[in-house]
Amino acid sequence: MPYGDYETWKTTPIEGEPYLSIIIPAYNEEERIIPTIGAIASHVSELGFPWELIISDDGSKDSTVQLVEELGFANLRVLKPPRNTGKGGAVRRGMLAAHGKYLLFSDADNSTPIEEVQNVLRKLDTEGYDVAVGSRAALGAEEAHRSPFRRFLSWGLRWIVRNILRTGVRDTQCGFKMYTREAGKHLHTVQTIDGFAFDLEILYLASKFGYRVAEVPVTWIDAPGSKVDTRKEVQRFLKSLVQIKLNDLRGMYDKVNRAPGMRVAVITPYPPSKGTLNEYAYHFVRALRQKREDVSEIIILSDELPAGEQYASDRGGTEGVPLRVIAAWRFGAWNNALRILRAIRKTKPDVVLFNIQFASFGSGKVSAVLGLVAPGLVKMFGYPTIVLLHNIMETVDLKSAGFAKNPLLEAIIRIFGNIVTRMLLKVDWVALTIPKYVEILEQKYKANNVLLAPHGSFVETPVPSFDLPAGPLQIMAFGKFGTYKKVEPMIEAVNLLQSNGHPPMEVVIAGTDSPNTPGYLEGVRQQYGDGTNLRFTGYVAEEDVPRIFGDAAVVVFPYTSTTGSSGVLHQAGEYGKAVVLPKIGDFAEVISEEGYTGEFFEPENVQSLADAIGRLVDDPNRRREIGTQNYIASRGLPIGEVVDWYLLHFQEILKSRAKR
Amino acid sequence: MAFNTRSSEDAAVAELDGRFDAHIAPQVSAWIEEMAARAPARLLVNLSGVTFIDSTALATLVQGMKRARQQGGDLHLCCLQQPVRIIFELTRLDRAFDIYLSEDEAVTAFDS
Fold first, then answer.
1. Chain B residues close to A39, C-beta within 8 Å
2. B2-7 β-sheet, strand order
3. CATH homologous superfamily of domain A473-634?
4. pLDDT tens-digit map of A592-626
């Protein structure tokens, strides 16, 4: 039943790769976008293949993004750039983020009715073309409501295009174009024009690179309210024509075309290193390795491992693009910035990404600060650099995090924090995972190179079963403990509940000491004993993570402060777990903005924590309810799509450098 | 785009075909204005031939419904194709309008 097809598409995420991705560039389209989405969703859902819809917003100032997001469709994504770039930029972002075998962009006003999609798709999947463009000039095309003036103008422009750019396509501007994935990604990566004339450049490039282009007659309705100012459009069009010719004469397209993919260096702790953010790095790199069209090699500069351990590298193949892991710095050393720079200069990557937080390079203040000089230094030596900063100084509770024992010291560290933040802001982009962080850096430091990059979810887990193993209910905390993650209140809270007749429970401490507090967990073990209802798992290897989370009835976040978005919360969500969270500003924001929920407790208050755990232990339905909501929230944005954002920004940096 | 109208004792009926958008909306609006002035204002818009409806057309129908109700009558819709029905759902206008599967049902409903 067709309506059922639409319902299924709307509510059930497709599995595997979409056959078709439809990209709609949108700028201030609050009035027109919903009917267009409705028409497309209705029609394409009936065609019987998996497909995705991408609304590539272009910095709309109206409620376009909000309206589309409120639809909550399972297979619809909204891309939100930091600023307005022009239609060409919006289409490019959409194309690069799309996963389909075939990629179509279609205008937001539905001026070429979506019913034309099969005609265009046929050229690609049956007749073997690489690009199929809807055409108002091809034989059989129908143009409704087009003024004689605009028809004359079109004719004139077509004549110029044919004779100057020598592309065989007669209608370059129709907003209905489809590509094979390879052609679409290639052409839109090389594209330099972000304005309306980007179509012209794409078709010029398609012809230059030898792609087979078909022109397909389509119906086209000149929608009233079109945002095109004809006079300006013609001026820009002619200017772009000259620019395209000049670009080609300067060899700019050849230069970009010759680079099949970027060589990306990532500075991060990486498993088996146990440094903070190693888990995030693992998942990020796993997703990055799948970007074969954009990346040719990944070089990880991780920290030195204990004697006898070694990093594994991989020459590529089924796992993805080749990966090299180099031990290039040492946690706690003072010369990490120089060592990292040396490693970068030796490996010569095209782009550099730092996956760090304030204590990544050392637990001591000096080593931590000196390590953070590295990103600025690398940028100074000419490497395009992005820093993914997992926390910012302004929101870290230094005392709880174990960095400042008295107010004077805290004030001094904050001054250094400001200096370090300013140094970090010297790189091309600083990516942050929480909107509030972006706001703080923009306001306090007047930074215009900060961007919001969501944390992303790590694994495509199946819908959780909610079944628990036999035996006591496992109350689990996961992470690196000792600084702001303190397990004592949790152990005491569970003991309190046990003495009040709640179901049997076992406390599971999954993880290791924080590098800043060696010996912490051993101290806890001695204090409370490793009894029947308390278990320490030690370091949790990647393959054991699903079991540890799967077996837990409740995941507790025994934090006294937070230093950023929580990877553990995302993981708990992926496994459909009910969570107990501290009432701390950051966390509350992460939860509300990302759709997570849980039971809350006052940090370090044993009674409050016991009450929160008790509410979940006593009520399986409540656990399931919260677990389901967290599961849905965690599916928000797979890390593969977050990785696309970074690649896009790197490509834009490289492109703007190539123009210079 | 085709736009035909007819009147009977039971209702004034507009039938549209193709794409209902800003190009045809002024004609529909004028028809509504004229028909709403007659008592009782029983307006029926048959959308059986419509494949796409844009926001201007939706706004025209909303205005039309308000106008008809001001005159003590109503404006009913009928025979929506799937894409149009989905657009009404997404804009939540399916809750605002009385929508019927057939012309007969829509006309009968004026008396209920």
1. 51-52, 83, 86-87
2. B2-7, B12-20, B42-53, B74-78, B98-100
3. Glycogen Phosphorylase B; (3.40.50.2000)
4. 667 788 999 998 899 999 999 999 999 988 898 88
